[in-house]
Amino acid sequence: MSALSPSTILDALNTGVMKEQGAALDRIDRILLSQHLGNEAAGSDVAVDYCEGDLTFSGSPKWNRWGANAQNTRFQPASAAGIRPEDLPDLELAWAFGFPGAQRARSQPAVTREAIFIGSQSGRVYALDTKTGCAWWTYEAGAEVRNAPVIQTGPGGLPDAIYFGDFEAVVHAVDARTGKLRWKKSIKDHPDGTITGSIALHENTLFVPMSSTEIVSAYVDDYACCTFRGGVTALDGSDGSTKWRWHSVGKPRKVGMTSAGTDILAPSGAPVWSTPTIDRKRGLLYVGTGENYSSPANDKSDAIVALELASGRERWIMQATPGDAWNAACGREPKPNCPSEDGPDFDFGAPPMLVDVAGGGQILLAGQKSGEIFGIDPDNSGKILWRRRAGMGGFNGGVHWGMASDGATLWVGIADTPGNRFAEGPPRPGIHAFDPETGEPQWSRIEPKTCDEVAYKCMTALSAPLSATPGLVFAGAHNGHLLAYSSQDGAVLWKRETNRSFETVNGVEAKGGSIDGAGVVIAGGMVIVNSGYDKFGEIPGNVLLVYRKKVR
Q1: Which tens digit of pLDDT belongs to each residue from 35-86?
Q2: Residue 37 belongs to a domain
Q3: What is the layout of strands, in order, in the sheet containing 372-377?
Q4: Does residue 123 contact residue 164 with C-beta atoms inside 8 Å?
Q5: Per-residue pLDDT tens over the stretch 268-325
Q6: How many Å apart are CA 76 and CA 492, to the nearest integer?
Q7: In what order do the strands lie in the sheet with 521-523?
Q8: Structural domain tally of the chain?
Q9: Predicted confidence band at 331 (pLDDT cuts at 50, 70, 90)?
Q10: What are phi and psi of 39, to 5 degrees?
């Protein structure tokens, strides 16, 4: 709590992840509690060091969207990456930026030659100069921004607008040069609705993933669980008007009562935690869904679903784990709101990837928290071409947030943190390579614990998504290690410790911690990563780190 300001705690109690607990207190008590627990010094808004002049662009984005491209492959061509294996000895920390009053830095940036666009826990979005870290502009979203911005380009391929979603399920469109608001639109259709994944963009249509915190609300015994419906909302990029909306579950109805005498409502849940994937050739949008929140589970949870880009109509469904209904009530006793199916909570938290394979054609690749990976035929109603176990699986992966592929190799990061009763086989935290056409293993590097304690500082789990460029795969670990692996055999070629304090360009006291949620960005000769993640007992932090080749 010492890292949080009273206003940050009050926001969490009023509208954030603690609002269900805050509802038990009246307004004055919430204010008094936040003042008692918060650190006034942490909330002091250190003056932003603004750049001189105006932001202008000299070319197209260097890393755009969550996955670097609309297919979410997280593979960066050498020309855009500007980092080769032989450059690693000269790669050093250029500057660090501290997020005021934050204990997590889980958003991922979008990058041009001139600016790094990044959201924060406070809801402030920054356009930071790539060379110095000064701010070209800032924008106040009003709620935490947890996802990667997507840049829309205009004439000459130059950035024009930036789109992102906030914790209150509001989509923002701002001017890329000035940070001025163009429009904003709420997609919330449930009190606990939020936007976790990044927005996908195709031909001026925004595809917004819909998730929620109702999974936590169900922890309260007298909460009637559950009514949230996961899905996707398509908006017009020009003005935010709604084009269509698809839900992963039908309208919930009463199906029973809990032991506490509260209604059970189903179907529910099946959120879309990750950014959708664009298939221009087939006119399809691919989304991965999570578990249902109440029983009985339906046929679209823990699934990859293909939707028509133009209408949102379902084309096909590939469900990997039937009968998965789970919520936070399942983690304690008594647990009246725990669904009768009780887990295993095997989401597709990582988006599917559409890749061009060496043998010709395309394949859809997907990784699940179960620890399984899939090769899926996009031309044959989502038929599973191959299915292989890469890790033992768990609540946080298995595959948690994302993989990477160049079409010749599929690189899979595995977390395999302990404590899941549905795990299969031994833990395999680390990085593993597979043939994307056949699923055959190519090589593995299992990362051993760095110390004997059962603590995140010892865990080498790779929960954050991987990022690749020719010869290299970058990863961030639970213990704060930032690594570059050889894409050929998994040898560690470069490693940095981010679980420490950093001097920042904006004067904010900052430290790193667990790297989770957002992955490494490789762009324009830079390696960029956020460090610090406070969920599940991981190591909190509040720093953005920018590494660059030193000039000799």
Answers
A1: 567 665 554 445 588 999 999 999 999 999 999 999 999 999 999 999 999 9
A2: no
A3: 353-356, 362-367, 372-377, 383-389
A4: no
A5: 999 999 999 999 999 999 999 999 999 999 999 999 999 999 999 999 999 999 999 9
A6: 19
A7: 91-98, 543-549, 526-531, 521-523
A8: 1
A9: confident
A10: -110, 110
pTM (two decimals): 0.93
Q: Is 13 helix (H, G, I), strand (E, B) or coil?
A: helix
At residue 94, φ and ψ (nearest 5 deg) are: -85, -45
Q: How distant is the alpha carbon of residue 262 from its chain centre?
A: 33
| Domain range enclosing 521 | 45-549
Calpha distance 50→28 (Å, rounded): 37
Answer yes or no: are the C-beta atoms of 413 and 468 closer than 8 Å.
no
The single-letter code of the amino acid at 307 is: L
Q: What is the CATH number of the domain that holds 383?
A: 2.140.10.10
Q: Where are the beta strands (DSSP E) in 392-518?
A: 404-405, 410-414, 430-434, 441-446, 467-469, 472-476, 481-486, 492-497, 501-502, 510-511
Q: Which of 186, 228, 201, 63 is nearest to 130 (CA)?
A: 63
DSSP state of 343: B
The secondary element (H helix, E strand) that includes residue 102 is: none
Q: Which of helix, strand or coil describes residue 118?
A: strand
Phi, psi of 216 (to 5 degrees): -85, -35
Query: Coil, strand, or helix at residue 22?
Result: helix
* Kind plus residue range of the DSSP H or E element containing 189: none
Instruction: Determine whether 131 is exposed, middle or buried from the number of CB atoms within 10 Å of its CB (0-12, 13-18, 19+).
Output: middle
Tokens representing residue 249 in the block: 């579950």
pLDDT tens-digit series, residues 333-361: 889 999 999 999 999 999 999 999 987 89
CB within 8 Å of 43: residues ≥ 6 apart: 4, 5, 6, 7, 8, 100, 101
Pick the closest to residue 367 from 386, 383, 381 (CA basis). Answer: 386
Say if 440 falls within a structural domain: yes
Structure tokens at 300: 């679209």
**Domain for residue 262, yes or no?**
yes
Are 318 and 310 a contacting pair, CB within 8 Å?
Answer: no
Question: Residue 21: inside a domain, yes or no?
Answer: no
Instruction: Please give the structure tokens belonging to residue 106.
Output: 């889980």
The sign of the torsion formed by the CA atoms of 310, 315, 316, 317 equals: positive
Cβ-in-10-Å burial (0-12, 13-18, 19+) of 426 comes to: exposed
Do you know the residue count of the chain? 552
